[in-house]
Amino acid sequence: MALKMVKGSIDRMFDKNLQDLVRGIRNHKEDEAKYISQCIDEIKQELKQDNIAVKANAVCKLTYLQMLGYDISWAAFNIIEVMSASKFTFKRIGYLAASQCFHEGTDVIMLTTNQIRKDLSSPSQYDTGVALTGLSCFVTPDLARDLANDIMTLMSHTKPYIRKKAVLIMYKVFLKYPESLRPAFPRLKEKLEDPDPGVQSAAVNVICELARRNPKNYLSLAPLFFKLMTSSTNNWVLIKIIKLFGALTPLEPRLGKKLIEPLTNLIHSTSAMSLLYECVNTVIAVLISLSSGMPNHSASIQLCVQKLRILIEDSDQNLKYLGLLAMSKILRTHPKSVQAHKDLVLQCLDDKDESIRLRALDLLYGMVSKKNLMEIVKKLMTHVDKAEGTTYRDELLTKIIDICSQSNYQHITNFEWYISILVELTRLEGTRHGHLIAAQMLDVAIRVKAIRRFAVSQMSALLDSAHLVASSTQRSGICEVLYAAAWICGEFSEHLQEPQQTLEAMLRPKVTTLPGHIQAVYVQNVVKLYAAILQQQERAADTQAAQEVTQLLVERLPQFVQSADLEAQERASCILQLVKHVQKLQARDVPVAEEVSALFAGELNPVAPKAQKKVPVPEGLDLDAWINEPLSDSESEDEKPKAIFHDEEPRHAKQRPPEADEQELARRREARKQEQANNPFYIKSSPSPQKRYQDAPGVDHIPVVQIDLSVPLKVPGMPMSDQYVKLEEERRHRQRLEKDKRKRKKRERERRGARRHSSLHTESDEDITPAQRVDIVTEEMPENALPSDEDDKDPNDPYRALDIDLDKPLADSEKLPVQKHRDAETSKSPERRDVAVVEKKSKKPKRKEKKHKEKDREKKKKAVEKGADLDFWLSTTPPAATPAPEEPGVNAAVTAPKEEQEEPRGEEQDAAEDGEQALEKKPSKHKKKKHKKDREERSKDQKKSKTRAPPREGEAEPVENGALDEEPLPPMSSYSLLAENSYIKMTYDVQGSLQKDSQVTVSVVLENQSSSFLKNMELNVLDSLNARLARPEGSSVHDGVPVPFQLPPGISNEAQFVFTIQSIVTAQKLKGTLSFIAKNDEGSTHEKLDFKLHFTCTSYLVTTPCYSDAFAKLLESGDLSMSSVKVDGISMSFQNLLAKICFHHHFSVVERVDSCASMYSRSIQGHHVCLLVKKGEQSVSVDGKCSDSTLLSNVLEEMKETLAGC
Amino acid sequence: MIKAILIFNNHGKPRLSKFYQPYSEDTQRQIIRETFHLVSKRDENVCNFLEGGLLIGESDNKLIYRHYATLYFVFCVDSSESELGILDLIQVFVETLDKCFENVCELDLIFHVDKAGLVGAPAHAVSAVKNMNLPEIPRNINIGDISIKVPNLPSFK
Q: What is the pTM of this model?
């Protein structure tokens, strides 16, 4: 053995440390991977040794390897071992490794709970600190729940170093365990005024982070933050607070008004750019929130814009970037003031920095008007040509489309220009946004009727050009535009000048290289074209040509029949048969054109994207009900990819039976419009200036301005958008002249005395009439569309769970789970806490919400009160005059947690009192003190339920600090020994649960006392008629229940088992066995430990608070049987005695007068148990009343035993 | 909130990395690689902010970086952080390292990863929630065999 030790330490001398590892990796540049795998093997050897220093070294190296990207999750258990080392240097390594590689899915993480708890309460602040640091990285919902209370205690640690960390980590705890937010919040708020600036800023950080996600719950903190903002000199904190206000102002415009002044002062005074920038940002947010209300803040806007301009003009690229970023926020509400700086923005477009260019692009979006759209887009197009790198080019492309299509093409005056821009964009190689362009083409062609002829001519040119087909290799590439081109040419084939040529272009063999969904569209539209051509030729009585076209189709369609794409194939074979049939008819000289084109008759209307969702479900229709017997699951649904489905929508619409003729349609539309107009809930589509043309009956009636045809409309090859700019200028010029003329005429007319229309014609140059009197068809909504603002919130958003009203007083059910038993925690002396740690019993919250009506009412009152406070604060105009916001509400909330700590069950009453206290708003501190006394007295009068009679409740005791002269309560634990052998020690506790009738939960703490590793633990109990162990579904009565963890040496953990009880009136014992495998160096052995579970009657009782009036009623009711016991030789103080009864027997004190107290409890099956406890000299008598006499006598017997020990 | 802190050299070799959200090792490597490609492409005299849908991010996230000699210091943060504040923070971080190692250079980080990690640790703990603060870096850590002196730093500009 000794030899082994020596050998071990010699080996260790040759172990690599971290430096050696790093050096080694650097020396093995060529075969790094091999070297590292070799190192990992060594590390695995090292981890097998018993020496903790070796292990720590190994884990340290692993951490480095993890950073280099190697998986080290296999060493998770070793990391835990190192974490539990007693030496700080090792512990630190362990926690560092854990924070790097543990996450929620790490299964060994649940073994760490007790270790972390131990470290958290360690006397060394560095142990605590490192545990907090580590925990912040790998906290899980379970850890958060079990440790929340420990961390909350640390928030009032004496060392600011710990306080700060504890405050910060609370944020992570809130995220994982949202229930902890309300109980912890008062203390967090308290930390906002911590003397240590670090802690203060930590608290600000946490609250800001919380408030950012759910701002409305934090509005009541505004006064406090306002005070901090005006008093703090720490720029970091200021930035955070100012950012927070930015999030709050949209909810409360009055807050904004209050903020403007101090913020502007800060803007003028501060020299820190970061602070200045954040101030400007928040002022902008304020202005946005005010924008609807009051317009007289133009000075502030000017100030912001001015400051931002300075930023943008700065030579520092960072400031330039941020300036543009902030500018884009102003843009949304005050576009006018930003537009003045157009020159600057355009200049930034030429910046060499891509980030800045992108920001400038964002700004452009809001700067366009009818006047400058063409100019700006032209500039962007030159950028597109110059841009290197596809990402920036793609960004440009989407921006161009965004800018042009914004608010229903509001700024486009000439759609021919827009189409040619789109066509020019198709020349981009390698863009990912082909589908975007395609969608625009389709949209414009469908909705702008006047442009169809032009669009069709351009599209047929596209179809003719070869370069697009060539690019078909990448999906969603530019070839997507062919989808749109084919469809437009087919659908609006009547506008085609040379349909035959287009038809041939669409039937080229090369087309089969296109993606399937495009081919499918080709096939369908080939037929549409064919129908048009047939009609044309039959009208011309050119049967020869008609037959030739048919022949062409019969020859070429088979290439689509062989397509790999199902859709294309199916359509092609279907259509091929159709054409063959037509060919036969043609051979017999039967006119077919009418019938073929009837396939495609009817007009298409654009449908709003949400229209389908908005169709109301008819009454009486249950979409979830089966209409017939459900089929077996074996039939797999063949789902189509979503994109395809979406793309096909127009076609489905197309296949509508053509029975709805034009008149019928018009009539229906009219009727619908009428109905919509009368329906206040109907969502009108965004108003556009073009909308008024909508009522024009048809295309023919639209007056189209004649375009100067000096430039031919059909541009050979690709069109040039530039020419439209010139054209447009000329057109506008002409218009202006015309208008002037008209005006002049009018003036003359007026001079002649015509008084009509005197108020008309005040338009500015801004109203440039569009070149095409376009009919932008608005999207259709279904009749009776339901107005619904569906919020697309992600239900999985982790922050959603934190949307909790923090102003409500705490309810009884909301306490953090405490490790110890409820009542044991009276004083918080250090040795007491140690006791708690040794016991390490984590009690899961078992009491569920029990809402009392009174409490609810109080809550409401308090909430109202809070609101009033805020109102009051907001309405006082001079910010300086606001007294330090020591509002009663805040204070009451702050005091609450302390009391909660002392007497966890008393807080219900406290909460109620808080509510009342808040009702009488006393702003000054002085009054507040007096008030507190009032409250103290009132509470005496009220005699409401109190957990355990704290001295100040009693008449005879001094009112305050009564506990001082009382001896402290001895530590108590209800865990009693279940069984023990050399391997394992079992202690247990039984708790009734109120939620489930007749169920009790047995918490068993298993502690490994050996040096072996215990696993495969299984607990089995011999069920009795009265009590049964709840086993997992499917297991038989003789199966055991596995313990969900394993135990390394020296570790303890708690498992819970649920039992169902039939009758609770008598106590009983159950025999059981724990079986497990003990594994050590010598091998593994099967072990067993027998035990006897004792269910006392007490364990069926659940602590339930009771009001004295209800208690009195209960006693008067007369349906309770009575019994009593007396115990002599008691030396313990009455208070401790009561505490003991409360703790061990699950009672609560209803009322206490001198040395006499009434107590109450309830069984899990609803029996009431009332006690009257009287203390005489050296003796105690207990009188009990209960709805079941057997239960009562058994409970009293058990109580006698407890008391006898006192 | 700080989402990640990455330090790598001019060749993209990670020198110190810390993620505050769990990612698999492969993803972490990929993120570092991708970040390196984005950052290294940029000229010296352009701005220090980067946006874009990296692996790291929802649209809310931003990369804020600084380049010192052979090392890139990259912080990934969301919109609750002040951009300029984070830049200052990087400066503070580097100054702290500098004071700890006396003229910090890449090799220091390579050979004293654990200590650098410790210096960063307060930062890390903090950034468990985010944002660290000058006073939050303890002035003097002296525990057992580790002794790092953190001198007074110039106060925040």
A: 0.54
